[in-house]
């Protein structure tokens, strides 16, 4: 078993890869459908700032800050779900790819849509099938890529020598001269 920090790093990389796929599929949907970017992440950022008592500054800069914070919250969610998956995999040793992907999918859907529902910024009950497809496909892409990247990198890490995966490399083999001494 490798150290937790390395497994966590693998989870962060997997979450970043999944987030990239989520963004790409979302933007491709915008190109194909002609829809505008969602304003909901910015609304979550605005609501969160209000709840936390954070002043977003000059009123002229607030729309840009809301949009940026909304996007950053999305990246944070993607990284956090990837890290959470890694920590869960430290506990659940044997898990095939399909249930792993489904678990990541459910968690990322809850993590990304949950705050929007809690803050009353969206109501999926009124969504049409196109709205659901526009939300489900990028999140499913996230789940597949996050689970696959984690599993592949985790297997690579398992093959590394123990000294290469410990902090500080304390057990690194001693250097030898050309005679082997």
TrEMBL record:
Which residues are listed as membrane-spanning? 67-88, 95-116, 136-154
* Keywords assigned by UniProt, alphabetized: Membrane, Transmembrane, Transmembrane helix
Protein name in UniProt? Uncharacterized protein
